[in-house]
Amino acid sequence: MAEQAHEPATRRLIFWDVDGTLVTCGPSGREALETAPREAGGVRSVPHFPMGGKTDPQILGEMLRGAGVALARIDALIPVALAEAERVLAGWSARMGREGHVHPGVRSLLGELAGRDGVRQTLVTGNLAANAAVKVGAFGLEWFFDLPVGA
Q1: Structural domain of residue 61, as residue ranges?
Q2: Is residue 4 part of a domain?
Q3: Long-range contact set of residues 43-52: C-beta below 8 Å, sequence gap at least 24
Q4: How many helices and strands (H and E) does the chain possess?
Q5: pLDDT confidence of residue 1
Q6: Looking at the domain assignment, is residue 3 inside a domain?
Q7: Rounded to two decimals, what is the model's pTM?
Q8: What are the pLDDT tens digits along the chain (151 aa)?
């Protein structure tokens, strides 16, 4: 009797970015990051910087440098500013849901992929993990993702 070859089950891990790919959150994400240096570092005016393709710590570092904060203070201020941005954004989930939107086709694609055996979806983003969860949660998408696996 010939042995039958067993093919291993196909497994896929799909990585998603958040802002501009899955959802647009309106001004909340930017405003939370701009609020953080003011609260954490006493910065009066935060310069406007492009945020696309950057991590939240990178953005906050640029804001603090651009606001004239001494380089020696920035490393100590970034964790405080990150915590502040996280706190602020957590309170704005409903606002993001009102001002933002899920991009066309995203919800149906996520649902289709979630229904396939061997498929896991997660987030890989420049957002803090908690902020990414708040952003997708504002639109009821969080259950599609294995968030602890993401980055």
Answers
A1: 12-149
A2: no
A3: 43/67, 43/69, 52/19, 52/20
A4: 6, 4
A5: 55
A6: no
A7: 0.86
A8: 555 666 666 789 999 999 999 999 999 999 999 999 888 878 888 888 888 889 999 999 999 999 999 988 999 999 999 999 999 999 999 999 999 999 999 999 999 999 999 999 999 999 999 999 999 999 999 999 999 888 7
Radius of gyration of the chain from its Cα atoms, rounded to whole angstroms = 19
Structure tokens at 140: 């009821």
Residue 126's alpha-carbon distances to 2, 82, 145, 149, 151, in angstroms, are: 52, 12, 16, 15, 8
Provide the residue type at 86 as one letter: E
- How far is the C-alpha of 40 from the C-alpha of 83, rounded, in Å? 9
**Phi-psi sector, 10: left (phi>0), alpha (psi -120 to 50), beta:** beta
The two tokens of residue 7 are 């093919």
Q: What DSSP state is assigned to residue 8?
A: P
| Per-residue model confidence (pLDDT) at position 52 | 86
Single-letter amino acid code for the residue at 139:
F
Tell whether 99 is covered by a domain.
yes
| DSSP element (H, E) containing 110 | helix 106-114
Q: Per the domain annotation, does 7 fall within a domain?
A: no
